[in-house]
Amino acid sequence: MTVPPDPSGPAGPAVDLPARRLLLVHAHPDDEAIGTGATMAYYAAAGAGVTLVTCTLGEEGEIHVPALAGLAAAEADQLGGYRITELAAACAALGVTDHRFLGGAGRYRDSGMMGLPTNDHPRAFWRADLDEAAGHLVEIMREVRPQVLVTYDPNGFYGHPDHIQAHRVAMRAAELAAAEGFGPAKIYWTAVPRGVLEAGVASFADADVANNPFAGTEHVDDLPFGTPDEQIAARIDGTDQHTAKEAAMRAHRTQIPENSWLYAVAGNFGGEFMGVEYYTLAAGVRGPGSGPYGWEDDLFAGLDAPTGVTGPAVEVPTSTPGTPAAAGVR
């Protein structure tokens, strides 16, 4: 992993930075590949600075490789360490060289699904002090000066406590960084348009594949996620990078089984499914777009200055959304 040098003082970094700089905040290893892998590969290939921050090691994840079952939290509790190697391989597949764990590897522990006893572990990310965790992220922002920040919506996309906490930490860090004059100019939340989900329900509700989120679903409203198409702000077409995204997903072999619904959908829809990702704009000014909803095709759309961008202060949600985490989805 290549880590940029530290900045020298409040005036800013003492080293040259890429003209465009993207920071992504995810909860567990594999979230980056599933949700934003094509976007990361697209911008890395274009020469942008792409920094990934992962908040936990994913210690509570299910294990889909029988030979590695002994790594589980209830056994040797070594899954987190193993997933570090999976994440390194995934980042290599995506062409991303700057990856950090929030506060250092193992500082925060995977909290498990909402309502489980693992939520109360002393190191559970769900229990993390917000300003302390955000402070770790501010230090990274001070170093890499991202113009664009990507994280989850207030419900963590589907209700996992670590995703919700990642949202809170990212938004609080953006607020603190903006107060110091180097906050991101635009903040995006990952999303899937309802139109895309409707196609998934129609095609895969009865598919015999692992962890199928559409199983038994009759209507898109039955899913714990989905954004009206008109609320989507950006559509990133990384179709040319779809093989990199799939390779990154396959690197997370303990978490994504070989017969995963993700690969099944990719088999039916190919590069468009793997390579196209969507976002809502949470803060900043929307840039020019196209199509019936004016979707941006670049997360940096409308940003003229390559350096020194000061972002807006953002409001951090303080209430916990009530939508439960979808079973079997991390």
From TrEMBL:
Binding residues for Zn(2+): 28, 31, 163
Classification via InterPro entries: GlcNAc_PI_deacetylase-related, LmbE-like_dom_sf, Mycothiol_biosynthesis_MshB
EC number: 3.5.1.103
Source superkingdom: Bacteria
UniProt entry keywords in alphabetical sequence: Hydrolase, Metal-binding, Zinc
Record SUPFAM superfamilies: LmbE-like (SSF102588)
Cofactor(s), by name: Zn(2+)
Cofactor note: Binds 1 zinc ion per subunit.
Pfam family, one: PIG-L
One GO molecular-function entry: N-acetylglucosaminylinositol deacetylase activity
The reaction(s) this protein catalyses: 1D-myo-inositol 2-acetamido-2-deoxy-alpha-D-glucopyranoside + H2O = 1D-myo-inositol 2-amino-2-deoxy-alpha-D-glucopyranoside + acetate
Coiled coil: none
Xref: Gene3D superfamilies: LmbE-like
Function of the molecule: Catalyzes the deacetylation of 1D-myo-inositol 2-acetamido-2-deoxy-alpha-D-glucopyranoside (GlcNAc-Ins) in the mycothiol biosynthesis pathway.
PANTHER family: 1D-MYO-INOSITOL 2-ACETAMIDO-2-DEOXY-ALPHA-D-GLUCOPYRANOSIDE DEACETYLASE (PTHR12993:SF26), N-ACETYLGLUCOSAMINYL-PHOSPHATIDYLINOSITOL DE-N-ACETYLASE-RELATED (PTHR12993)
NCBIfam families linked: mycothiol_MshB (TIGR03445)
Sequence similarity: Belongs to the MshB deacetylase family.
Xref: HAMAP family: MshB
Official protein name in the record: 1D-myo-inositol 2-acetamido-2-deoxy-alpha-D-glucopyranoside deacetylase
Biological source species: Plantactinospora sonchi
Gene it is expressed from: mshB
